[in-house]
Input
Amino acid sequence: MALDTAHTLGFVQKTWDGDILPTLTEYVRIPAKSPMFDPEWKAHGHLDRAVSLIEQWSRARAIEGLRVEVVRLADRTPLIFMEVPGRGDDTVVLYGHCDKQPEMVGWAEGLGPWTPVRRGDRLYGRGAGDDGYAAFAAVTAIQALQTQGVPHARCIVLIEACEESGSYDLPHYVEALASRIGTPSLVVCLDSGCSDYDHLWTTTSLRGIVNGVLTVEVLSEGVHSGAASGIVPSSFRIARSLLSRIEDERTGEVVLRNLHADIPRERIEQARAVSSLLAKRISEFPFLPGMRPMHDEPLAALMAGTWKPALSITGAAGLPTPTDGGNVLRPKTALKLSMRLPPTVKASDAAKRMKETLEADPPYGARVTFHAESPGDGWDAPATAPWLAQAMRRASEAYFGQPAMSQGTGGSIPFMAMLGARYPQAQFMITGVLGPDSNAHGPNEYIHVPTGVRVTACVASVLADHANDSAERGLAAR
Output
C-alpha cells in the first residue's frame, strides 16, 4: 500500500499538537544535564526523569509489536531501547538523545532553560530541539505508517542520555545489545540541523571534537600583585602564549598542520551548490553592531565551519569576577578548550598532539597540564544510494514543497562515527530541526515546531521507501 501524503501529514500534525508538544513542554522543565555538566546526575535524578517521561509516552502509542525497555549498565547513564517488528530482514536504527547542555547565561526576559515558552511557531527552552523531540518524532513516524497499513522494516529506536558528554556510554550499550540491534541497512539520526526551514536538510559530514582543560599554575597561593608583578609571571599570560602554539590569534587559523585534512572535491561541490542559501544564515548570527564574520565569502565560511579545525575557549576557572578581582596575582588559570576537527581527522591523535604541544617546555618552568575529555571523531558520509537520494527528494517535495538539500555540519555527533565504522554498508539519513537562530547550546534555544512536524513526516516517507527498496532487492535476489 502506498503512503498517503495528506493522511501522513494530518496524522503527524495531530500527534504533535495533541501529544508531542504537551510532553515536550514537560521535558523542557527537567534540568536533565548531561553527566559532564552534572557529575551527580544519578543522585539528582533528572536524567532518569527525562528517560521515564519518554518511556511512558512511547509505551502509550498504538504501535503493533512495540517493545520499550530502559536498559541500565552498571555506572552508566540509561538507554531507551525500542523495537518494532517489520517486514523482511532489514533493520532501521533511529537515533536521538535526551540529555541536555547546561543553562548558559543571556536568556531574554521571560525565557529560561527550564521554562518552556510557546511563542508562535517556536517552543523555547533547553533541549526541545537538541534533542528531546527525536524520540517522539521517530515513534510517530513509525505509527503514521501503521495507521495506513504501509509496510516498514524492523525498527530499532535508540535514545541515549550521554550525547552532550561525547556519547562515552553509548559504545558499551551498542556492544551489549549487538545481537538485538542486528545489522542495520539504514540509520536515521534526528540530532542534526537545517540551514533554513524551507527544505529537508541532510548532513553529509560532521566535525570531530577535542574538549579539554588547559591549566597553568605558578604559585601555591595568591600574592599581592604590587609585590609580585614583574617578578612572578602571570599564569594568564603564560596560558595566552601557550594558546599561540596551536592557534594564530590574529586570524583564528589552527597552526598545527596535522589537525587539518584534505577536503574531498565532492564536499566542496556540495557546499558550492548551497552556499548562496547559507549567506543569509551567516548574517543571522547575533553579531554586535560593527562586527563582521571571519569570512565574508559564503563558500569560504561554509568550508571553514565544516571542514577546517577551529578553537573556542568555552570556560575558565581561577578568574574572579571583575567586581571581586582584587590586587592579587593569581596562582593559576584554567581554560576550557574546544577544538573542532575536520571530519576525517582522528580525535585521539589530535588530543595527543595538542597535549604534547601545550605541555612541552613550559615558560618559566610553570606547571602546565592539558587534560582531554573523551575526544570524539568526526564523520564523513558514504556515497548515498540512488533509492535514498530519491526518497529524501520525494519526502522534501511532499512536505516542504522544495527539493532536499545536503550540507556538512560544524557540530559533532560521536555516535555517527561509531556506527559508520561498525556498519560500513549502512546508508545514513542525518537530519534535524536546528535551523537559523535556534541557538542550540546557547541562550534562547528553541525548536521551530512546523519543521518538527515536517521532518517527522519526511522520516515516515523515507521509511516507507526503504521498505519498498528492500522488497525490490529481495525479489531481485530470488
